Amino acid sequence: MSKISMYSTGVCPYCQRAEMLLKSRGVSEIEKIRVDLEPARRTEMMERTGRRTVPQIYIGEIHIGGFDDLAALDRAGKLEPLLRGQT
User: Fold this and answer.
1) Has domain 4-83 been given CATH number 3.30.750.24?
2) What pTM was computed for the model?
3) Of 5, 46, 68, 82, which is the most buried if we count CB atoms within 10 A?
4) SS3 label, residue 30
């Protein structure tokens, strides 16, 4: 399974929904990068993604975007192949 990393905060409902969706697809480990606890990581996130909001999700080295992007990928049937490393 591909490595999942997610820029997030402790109180973000979209972060929680993204985590629930990923876990429902078999993901057991998500590297959470807490931008509320480490403000420098928010700057890193914005430079990496061009976005200011959380969550920002990566599957491997592929930037997925936020929860809406993740959910759309899932609805299109493209999330599970990505999680398995099939690009």
Assistant:
1) no
2) 0.93
3) 82
4) coil
